[in-house]
Design a protein that fits this description.
About 45% of the residues lie in helices and about 20% in strands. The chain is built from twelve helices and ten strands. The chain has a five-stranded antiparallel beta sheet with strand order 7-3-10-9-8, sandwiched between helices. A three-stranded antiparallel beta sheet has the order 4-5-6. β5 and β6 form a beta hairpin. α6 runs antiparallel to α12. The longest helix has 20 residues. The protein is elongated and about 90 Å long. The two termini are about 45 Å apart.
Length: about 350
Amino acid sequence: MPSPPITELTSRAREIFRLVVEGYLATGVPVGSKALSGPGGVSLSSASIRSVLADLESLGLLAAPHTSAGRLPTEAGLRLFVDGIMQVAEPTVEERLAIESRIAAPGPIEAALEATSALLSSMSSAAGVVMVPKREPRLIQLQLVGLGPGRALAVLVGEDGVVENRVLDLPVNLPPGALEEASNYISAHLAGRTLVEAARSMRADIASGRSALDTASRDLVERGLAVWSEDAMARPVLIVRGQANLLDESALSDLERIRSLLDDLENKQSVAELLDIAREAESTRIFIGSENRLFALSGSSVIASPYRDRDGRVVGVVGVIGPTRLNYARVVPMVDFTAQSLGKLIG
């Protein structure tokens, strides 16, 4: 059942609803009429408060886990709160400095992204996630080095100084000089190009007969291209840190849900597909519980924001994943600020 617009609630109902949601998000336990009529609550009798709570429950905004317990917000109630009531709390000066200093630390971009994910996790008490930019680095060289019969090491060097290695299986009885010939040919075509660009050029040369490579060297070139292309397709595009934060004291009473959430986080490709939806957003996106298929069973929330390069193109997504009892007012602006800071780093 769709939740009513916040404007359809009376001021009294809106205030009681706000107190219930904020109380639940702060403590993780249902909020009862006694707590609502105490200090900082509303100036109504317990009977009047219970009547309003019953009305909010009939609207699908609150639920009672037990007949004698207080109320907690439903997913529809959380959505209404986030969209219509929540007052965000901007990151403190200390939090901003921590985020900026961690992102700006010397080292490769991957290290900064990993540090960002870990920092978001510690600051939100949830799991921090960062989708790695989908970028095609410019390359300098690919060297094939023999490791013995039937094996070679492929060493790829990028313009950004990153060096990566892969082991290749070789055909038996490889002619002398074939590794060197293939290495020289590949490097000549790689210089200043992405792997996709270089592979397209090399395969066109080989197909047209312009390469002047013998059969063995052509085979080596194809093997070299294959191992890097397959690796690029299979490489995880997601960094997840802080799963242990999900195992706090409040999780002990709901271990099955936490187990389901941890299983979901292991499926990085599915998580990346979910975060990819946030790439199209202009600002931070919030997915609550069953609003996303992946975390429907674990009843978890995702707060994610895209980050952009200097040309305004979206290159990745940063966010947190945790129980629906996240401190949305604090975490949403924190994720948004982190995305802006990452955009400055990407340039």
